[in-house]
Amino acid sequence: MICPYFFPNIAGAENYAYNLSKGLIKKGHKITVLCSTKEGKNKTETIDGIKIIRQKPDFILSNTPIKLNLYFTISKLLKEEKFDLVNANTPVPYYADMACYATKRQKVPFILTYHNDNVHPNKIVNFLCNLYNPTFNSLTLKHSTKIITPSPFCFNKSRFLKKHKNKLSWIPPGIDLTKFKPKKSKYILEKYNLKKNSKTILFVGHMGTFHKHKGVDVLINAIKKVNKTNKNTHLILVGKGDAKEYKKLCEKQNIKNTIFAGFVKDETLPKYYQSADILVLPTTTEQEGFGMVLLEAMACGGPVIGTKIGGIPYVIKNNKTGLLIEPKNPLLLANAIKKLLNNKELWKKLSKNGLKESKKYDWKKVIDKTEKLFKGVVQ
Question: Are 160 and 133 in contact (CB under 8 A)?
Answer without folding.
Answer: yes
